[in-house]
Specification:
Length: about 800
């Protein structure tokens, strides 16, 4: 279905990685991260909260806090919920990953590609699957699928799943082993297909998902060479890969999500054409709570809570929490206990109430409508035409406040008269309306050639309003005392104005395919992808100017970073060229595909993270011009009836061509575009009796070294110049993630009804980083580890 038709994937002139229901079962594919590991030039990062996934396809990344770069389509419906992608994959029949711009057919923001998921379609016979599993780290899971006819022309399916795990990491402050990367998830989905007549079919889908998990589980690593001699410790210029992770926080990292979805798809068969109409609704409510990260700037140094904590929670009484003094942190007792104020180096995410807390919300409600007309498949000229409408209402909250040890209210703003008052607040309401029209025409050039022309036009009307109350901070934060709770009020003291803008783009695509042999297809394509621009939280530009830039009368006069961050960011446009070959050899036992490509990107959207005396700030910037060139190949060889070997390789050469915001980064690699990625696997199946079959499978994945920021060793000023004078610059040359090599394995016994599966992910217990978030002006990086070895037993019964 790569082109919304039933076609042989080997004949589709698009780079496609496909997984059948059998592939999904044998590979133990339960989440997108599982099949991503089997695709060259595709990587996934999943860290801050459940669903906070950054998917990189050929070096084009789905930027945090911006729109996605790929279309995610389930049962023909484009999913707009930003957290829906990395959920449990239950009752899935097929997965297709399409690379390169796919906007002409698959919709909004398909700059880098599209991921097409089709679930099992309920049929005329009753069938069901029940699965239960147990694993290390107190991991338990259960799921059930039931499908069958309700009447002569109505069939339905019902799916439910539950999973829970304590995770791999412990909180050394509280002693809890289920308070860091824990996860509990419950979900259900119903699908009803009504054959109204021989020509009309209605497909209804409804689902819900609830998640309770850990959030914002980061440590910090400094990258400031000037501090090494000054403070006498090499840990101030450290390799992020050599850091020993330590979680010691007093504010529980929490991520709560609730998702609801409903869609209806109608298909009409009108002889020479078919008509499809889709209506879909999604609703997401999400909040995050975590400890703050700015204690080293002494925001709450003189509060009674901070003074009290430092009596017993300091580097001399609790080295288990902070490590050795000045390696790199130094938490001193208060003067009442023989210590000093304003002299320690606390570090972020600590156990004291000196660093405050952060609270976030990401809520979204959206409604989409689509109408598509498709010609029949047996015509020499085949075409598709359609129109699409989408309305999104999104609420984004980022708050920072005083931690007084009281229960935490899950609300954006807390006044000074109540516990844990808010000192810094970004609270924005976004409204987006999208109108699009698209079409594609395919026609044959003789018996061995095909041409296709596609075109899509998107227009997005975006607006944002500010919901922050026009009040001052609580006064408890010494760095923000007397300032407005949002820095934009310094520019607009009578009220922050609303903003609006329209982003639009034509997205053409041309494709050529030639079949010189029945088993060989050669293709070439050029296409354009578009990702809408948008707005950062109101006040972002004012805050950056005040704290980091000269000419605005604040501490930035001593920093002079010269940043050009704005409250809005531009649209992203990608031109992609590709030449590929697909072949079936040795009596169709060997599938061998390869492609070379080039992506030229204008205004590549990039996530930036700032930490300082004010707390935290998340913004989206753009890299003016970037280029990615690459090669990839994959194979699947059925050597014998019971033995299969498969794998792939991906090579990327990326370069930042122009970057006005950070000009020193020109010539560097693009973030999250590793130069190499490989995977290799094998599977063996053979009968051990008349009823039972044995299966064993091993999958190996390698990802080369990866940068996560545009700055990769170039010296720039840090906020520490405000405190220690000029010359305190950062060096992020040691913030590159090392190459990663992991192995997954599965062993299974099965018969017609039962399957018993022993499995392990990261069998070698490889310790590696999942993500590095450099913050140049802070002078370091925030790092998140990956999952360690997991193993368990699954039992499945099907009928």
């Amino acid at each position: 279905m790569a082109r919304k038709r039933a076609e042989n994937i080997q004949e589709v002139p698009i780079a496609v990685s496909a997984f059948t229901a059998e592939d999904i079962r044998d590979g133990g594919i339960e989440r997108p991260s599982d099949f991503v590991a089997l695709i060259p030039n595709v990587t996934l990062v999943d860290t801050a909260n459940v669903g906070d996934t950054q998917l990189s396809i050929r070096g084009i990344v789905s930027t945090r806090d911006a729109e996605s770069t790929f279309a995610y389509v389930v049962d023909g419906v484009l999913i707009t919920n930003p957290n829906a992608f990395n959920g449990e994959l239950i009752d899935v029949a097929q997965i297709e990953v399409l690379k390169g711009p796919q906007g002409a057919l698959y919709g909004r923001n398909a700059v880098a590609g599209a991921i097409i998921v089709n679930t099992k379609q309920p049929g005329e016979e009753f069938e069901g699957i029940a699965q239960a599993g147990v694993g290390n780290n107190d991991t338990y899971k259960a799921s059930a699928y039931l499908s069958g006819p309700l009447t002569n022309n109505v069939s339905a399916s019902l799916t439910a799943h539950y999973s829970t795990t304590d995770g791999h990491y412990d909180n050394v402050f509280t002693g809890e082993d289920d308070a860091v990367d824990y996860l509990e998830e419950f979900g259900g989905r119903a699908r009803v297909i009504w054959e109204v007549s021989d020509r009309t079919t209605l497909d209804f889908r409804a689902g819900t998902r609830q998640v309770d998990g850990g959030a914002i589980n980061f440590n910090a690593v400094f990258g400031i060479p000037g501090f090494v001699a000054f403070l006498g410790s090499p840990t101030y210029f450290a390799d992020v890969n050599e850091h020993e992770m330590r979680y010691a926080f007093n504010v529980p990292g929490e991520n709560e999500q609730e998702t609801r979805e409903f869609s209806v798809k109608a298909d009409w068969d009108l002889d020479r054409i078919s008509v499809t109409a889709i209506a879909a609704y999604n609703d997401l409510d999400e909040n995050l709570l975590s400890v703050g990260s700015s204690a080293s700037f002494y925001p709450y140094e003189l509060t009674p809570e901070c003074q009290s904590d430092r009596v017993v929670l300091n580097s001399f009484t609790r080295p288990d929490l902070f490590g050795d003094p000045l390696a790199p942190f130094l938490v001193l007792p208060p003067p009442s206990a023989g210590g000093e104020d304003f002299a320690g180096i606390y570090g972020p995410y600590g156990p004291t109430r000196c660093d405050g807390y952060q609270y976030q919300e990401r809520n979204q409600e959206d409604l989409s409508l689509e109408l598509r007309v498709t010609s029949s498949e047996d015509q020499s000229i085949r075409w598709i035409a359609g129109a699409y409408y989408l309305d999104i209402e999104r609420e984004v909250v980022s708050a920072y406040g005083a931690d007084q040890g009281a229960p935490y209210a899950h609300t954006p703003y807390i006044p000074p008269s109540e516990p844990n008052p808010t000192d810094s607040l970004f609270w924005d309401i976004y409204d987006t309306q999208v109108l699009a029209a698209y079409g594609q025409v395919e026609f044959d050039l003789g018996e061995t050639m095909e041409m296709a022309f596609a075109l899509r036009y998107d227009e997005e009307d975006r607006s944002v309003s500010n919901a922050v109350p026009n009040v001052l901070s609580s006064g408890l934060n010494l760095n923000l005392a007397g300032q407005p709770i949002n820095p934009a009020f310094m520019q607009f003291p009578q009220g922050i104005p609303d903003r609006s803008r329209t982003f639009s783009e034509w997205q053409p695509k041309i494709t050529w395919r030639w079949s010189p042999l029945d088993s060989v297809n050669v293709y070439a394509s050029w296409g354009r992808g578009f990702r809408s621009g948008g707005f950062n939280s109101i006040g972002s530009e004012s805050l950056i100017n005040f704290w980091y830039n000269q000419g605005f009368g604040g501490p930035g006069e001593l920093v002079g970073a010269g940043l050009t961050i704005s409250d809005e960011y531009q649209k992203e446009v990608t031109d992609s060229f590709e030449i590929g070959i697909k072949s079936m050899l040795f009596d169709n036992r060997l599938r061998l595909n390869a492609a070379i490509f080039q992506n030229d990107v204008d205004d590549n959207q990039f996530f930036e993270f700032f930490a300082g005396p004010y707390g935290l700030l998340r913004v989206v910037t753009t890299i003016d011009e970037a280029q990615v060139r690459g090669f990839e190949a994959d194979f699947d060889w059925q050597i014998s009836d019971g033995f299969r070997v498969y794998g792939g390789l991906g090579l990327l050469d990326s370069e930042i061509k122009e970057n006005i915001n950070r000009p020193l980064s020109v010539g560097n690699d693009l973030p999250q575009a590793p130069e190499q990625s490989f995977n290799l696997g094998s599977q063996i199946n053979f009968p051990i009796s008349e009823r039972w079959e044995f299966m064993a499978r091993v999958d190996w994945q390698y990802i080369g070294e990866m940068w996560f920021h545009t700055m990769q060793g170039e010296a720039t000023p840090t906020i520490w110049q405000v405190f220690f004078g000029p010359g305190i610059t950062q060096d992020l040359s040691r913030a590159q993630r090392d190459s990663v090599s992991t192995i997954n394995a599965r062993v299974e016994l099965s018969n017609e009804n039962w399957r018993f599966t022993l499995w392990s992910r990261n069998l070698g217990d490889e310790e590696y980083l999942q993500e590095v978030i450099p913050s140049p002006e802070f002078g370091g990086s925030f790092i998140h580890p990956s999952a360690l070895r997991s193993y368990g037993l699954d039992v499945t019964y099907s009928f």
